[in-house]
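[job 4471] stage=fold_predict status=RUNNING
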Amino acid sequence: MEDFLLQHSLTTLFIISFLAATFLPLGSEWLVVTLLLQGNQLEAVIMVATLGNFLGACTTYGIGFWGSSWLTTKVLRIDEARLAKATLFYQKYGSWSLLLSWVPIIGDPLCLVSGSLRCNFLLFSLLTFIGKLARYSVLAVLT
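[job 4471] inference complete, writing C-alpha cells
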C-alpha cells in the first residue's frame, strides 16, 4: 500500500480530496501533511488538494441544483435539521458563507444549499475555490 501511495501520491490526493468534499465522511488533511513531510512539492500538493476538493464541492452543488429533496434525504441521507441549519446560515450570511465551505459538518450542506437556492455558479466557484485554497495553504504552512 505504501508503494502505491508513493507512486500515485497526487492522484490519490486528488481522489481523496474530491470525495472529502462530498457527503462521504473522509478527510484529506492527513494525506496533505503526509505528502509534504515526504518531500512532495508544496505548490503541487496544495493545488491538487484544492482542485479535488473544489470539484467535489461542485458535485455537491450540482446535486442541490438538479437533485430533488428525495435525493438529498434518501440517497445522501442528509437529515432535515442539518439541511435547515445550513439553509439558515446561508440565508443569514449569503454567498459569503461559501468561504467556509471547507469547514467540517457545515461545508458540504452549504454547497448543497447554494445549489438548491440557485446561487450564481461563477460566484459559488470563486468563493468556494478561495476558501479551499486558503485551507490547504494554511495547512501546508503549518506543516
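[job 4471] summary: The chain has one domain: 2-142.
[job 4471] exit 0
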